[in-house]
Amino acid sequence: MSAQLRETAGELAEILWREHTVYRERSGGVVIRGEHVRRWISLAPAGGRDEVLVRAGRILDGGTTAPARSEAVVSLSASTGVLAATCRRLLAEAAADAAPVGPRAAPGRSNRSGKAVRPKCRGKHTSFGSWVILACLTGVVALYVYSTAMYG
Q1: Is 42 among the domain residues?
Q2: Does some domain include residue 114?
Q3: Which residue range(s) make up the domain with 14?
Q4: pLDDT > 50? residue 105
Q5: Of 22, 37, 84, 140, whose CA is between 20 and 30 Å from 63?
Q6: Which residue ranges does the record annotate as region Disordered (predicted)?
Q7: Residue pair 11/80 in contact by the 8 Å Cβ criterion
Q8: Contact call for residues 94 and 79 (beta carbons, < 8 A)
Q9: Number of folded domains that form the chain
């Protein structure tokens, strides 16, 4: 099955991207990387005899791969065109997941009136509970020093 996966991945890579890298995973699957589109596709044997698990995801800055965004099980007996259509659908889902959907809550972002909203910055303040713990520790240390001075 590994040779068949490798052959299918090569054909699929030629259909999907003009620039690609195909390599074998440790688990026995095959990965197709499209560096220019910053996406990857993985083909791995699935539970069925003639089935393959197709996963798609993004390539992050620095060349590392993000976890799979979407996956599907496809029959290997299906034509390469059917497999390519499934891969294109999964790649489109991965691209849609990567795009920001709504307004982001970023610092310095403007509100509806157009004025910049200043983020609430609490700074590094020590809470009341932290002061209580520090006072107790200081008391224990002082008690230890006092007892060693008196009886030591």
Answers
A1: yes
A2: no
A3: 2-98
A4: no
A5: 84
A6: 101-123
A7: yes
A8: no
A9: 1
